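## Example record

The block below lists the input lines for one assembly entry, exactly as stored, with component labels intact.
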Amino acid sequence: MIAIVDYRAGNLVSVKKAVDHLGFPCEITSDPGVVERAEKVIVPGVGHFAATCALDDSGLRAAITNAIARQTPFFGICVGMQWMFEASEEAPGVRGLGIFPGECSHFPPEVKAPHVGWNQIEIKDGSRLLRGVPSGAFVYFTHSYRAPVVAGTVACCEYGGAFSAAVERDHLFGVQFHPEKSGDAGLAMLKNFCSL
Amino acid sequence: MLTKRIIACLDVDAGRVVKGVKFLDLRDAGDPAELAAAHSRAGADEIVLLDISATHQNRGILLDAVRRAARQLFVPFTVGGGIRSLEDAAAVFDAGADKISINSAALADPALITRIADRYGSQAVIVAVDAKRLPGENGARWEVRSAGGRRPTGRDAIEWVREAEAHGAGEFLLTSMDRDGTGIGFDCELTAAVVNATSIPVIASGGAGGPEHFVTVFQEGRADAALAASIFHFGLNSVGELKEKLRAAGIPVRWPC
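Predicted structure tokens for the full assembly:
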């Protein structure tokens, strides 16, 4: 069973609908016990980085950390991916998981923020998450803060400079865009994750 | 490069699509779920479903249409019409919408924008603005209308979009009442004025009569997206055909999808 972690950050119906459509059993849950026992964990999330504080307070952070330590595949989406970095300018003092180094920052003033719409991603070879998705594929973004390009970056997007569109290390995956809203390319990535 | 979005709009009355239905060779052209999926396959970047009757009697029918449309839709899906409270919005989100569009209710109570944005994020809240040009010589000005464009509000469109953005709006769906249904082109002056006044994306609507109007509203109006409700009435078979023409004119679009 795939746990879709509910920490009151936005609408999780779309993520569940996409996983259901792909034929994998999943459950929206805020129960740390369910998250710890899950075969895979998805942390979606829209809105503010500070919303991830709810993960700390509810025991979900510990459950997720334990699951990750036991090699449970983990997938962060949007703010869920930003949370895999150390911190974000959006909520100074709120601690991310620190799986990837660096801090998320606001887009520079030369470009309109939020970055909303379909943009192309440049994909590095060898990603398990992005297998079968061609470089240059269009995916749907909606965000005002972006994660830096790091060693674990497997796809970049250009908007006011390059930022991490997808990150990956071992069994840990994150995407800034919304795979559940990115047509066939997004479904292919979700399927890659769910099939691990 | 961030592309310009083409958004297919379905106007729904009592659970059936009532406008923009001349689609390819679909037998049941009036079914919102079928049309939403067909538009998505044909290259629409997003789907908007507007409940134009929006009465409480039709609420159940709307939610059923939303649920059925959402099931097979993996591009952003917006639902509007008659959303007056956080509870109304929650029901629509639970049925599978990614964004809601509010208009009259936001004018009556701008804090509603904030309440929905706090729960679902600003990106999920589109404020629809129906603007009508005011006569006068001191430069162009537009008045906001409510109740589907019927009721003048006395409010300046530019002031209203600034206020709505401050309350947490994530995007604007801007319709020119003067151009709507005319087919003579979008009001690029209005669009550019709203784009200049705000930092969030602006979806232009009202007046499209051909692909060249989309080129103009992206270039001169600097719109981020454009709504195509009755595109099939001006000689194009699909959103894909429109996008091919836009691409040929140098507009960045998601194509092929």
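Chain B touches chain A through 32 residues (CB under 8 Å). The domain at 5-248 of chain B is CATH 3.20.20.70 (TIM Barrel).
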